Amino acid sequence: MFEEKTYKKLLAKCMSYAPNGIDTSEGSVMYDVAAPLCMLLAEAYADLSLLNEQVKIPTMTGEYLSAKAEEYNVKINSATPWIYKYVYEGGDVCAGDRFFADGYYYTINAIDEDGGLYLECETAGTAVPKLAVGTRVIPAYTIPGLTLSQAGEVFRYPTDDDTDEEIRSNLQEALAQPSENANVAQVKKWAKDFEISGGIKPIKASIVYACSVYDEKINVVIKNIPNNVLIFLNVDDNYDESEVVEEFQEYIDPDRLGFGEGKGVIGTIYNVYPLITLPVTLSAKLYLKRSVFGANVDTAEIKDTITRKLNKYFDDLVDGSSGDYVYIYVDNLKSEIQSITGISNCENLSICNGHKNIKIAIFKRPHIVSADDINIDVVIQEVNPDDFEEYSAK
Fold it and tell me: Which long-range contacts (CB under 8 A, 24 or more apart) does 43-49 make?
């Protein structure tokens, strides 16, 4: 707004008001009097420009954005640390004891009902590397009698501080929707904000159908059923899908009776499901580089690699889709397969016994269940240098 109010332009404008015959050159009385004032004015305009940016939600940042979010009761998530189950033998380990592993300090932060202990990293955030099960954790101070001290299974995964973009998105979403109106957007917000023990939000996204139920026998969504809301949850892979679905069902409508005993409104039945896994089969002819795979190709290893690669691709498709369908293009699958080191070409690719592109309802997750669902014919290629002529531009 005040980009034109620079020191040089303010000074030039000030000098232009000088009467005829008055010396305005650098070092003159007029110049020396006006210059400091123009500098102060330029600084004031710069502050006003910054303030102008910080009063508008699309451009505000930092503490200004956080203050605006708090004004509308938008929760700002702070970074959380890794928490592991602690495995030990001997010694008297108590809450507050410190340990060291892989460059970071950990503290015993809690003891459960069964006497189990939990290790919490003193540094929050996802930048801290994960400890493998069985990693030795060394006491910061000697604990007499301690013969075994290891990190166990992950109890809680870490998260980072909300970025300005995340805070802004949550704030704009809160302002765009009336509070607690129980429409589709509100139900999605309930799912997004849902927390399990430890303040973790395990639901990446949700698909919500109003006036609908799901027929598990024929695997179809049946619409135009009044007073029913159907919810499919896309749960983070780090958490047990069935447990999260069960807990969210308990949270929104415990008995699926619509009595209003949960978050949902009275008179509406909420049915919660995980995304439905849709088995995918593939067949293809692959051309492999001998220099990478050798003469004796391990097809099982190749199929395992393709399975992991494409399942990640399918998961990313589902996570990034916002319409009613997920679209799978044969050419894109070929590109994914050909990006694997050593595979030079992929031909005759068929998906689910067909060679055409397919679309899948958004509440279903395409997934290659096992490597046995992939059928490949392998051709070993050996590059002959005589087949190529060096080219240099003239």
Answer: 45/2, 45/5, 46/2, 48/1, 48/2, 49/1, 49/2, 49/3
Q: Report the C-alpha gap between 33 and 51 in whole angstroms.
A: 28
> Are 65 and 37 spatial neighbours (Cβ–Cβ below 8 Å)?
no
Interatomic CA distance for residues 308 and 311, integer angstroms: 5
How many angstroms separate the Cα of 66 from the Cα of each of 6, 179, 278, 309, 335?
30, 20, 42, 39, 43
Cα 374 from Cα 301, distance rounded (Å): 12
Backbone angles phi, psi at 132, to 5 degrees: -70, 150
* Cα 329 to Cα 343: distance, rounded to the nearest angstrom: 19
Specify the residue for token string 């595979």.
343
Residues 307-361 pLDDT 10s: 999 999 998 888 877 778 889 999 999 999 999 988 989 999 999 888 899 999 8
pLDDT in tens, 211-248: 899 998 888 889 888 889 999 999 988 889 999 999 99
Six token digits for residue 292: 């990478």
Distances (CA, A) of 232 to 212, 246, 249, 263: 12, 12, 11, 16
| Among 204, 201, 249, 205, residue whose Cα is nearest residue 229 | 249
Count of CB atoms situated within 10 Å of the CB of 26: 8
Q: What are the tokens at 347?
A: 């031909």
Q: Which two tokens stand for residue 75?
A: 């929760």
DSSP string for residues in 182-243: -SHHHHHHHHHH--BTTTB--EEEEEEEETEEEETTTTEEEE--TTEEEEEEEE-TTS-HHH
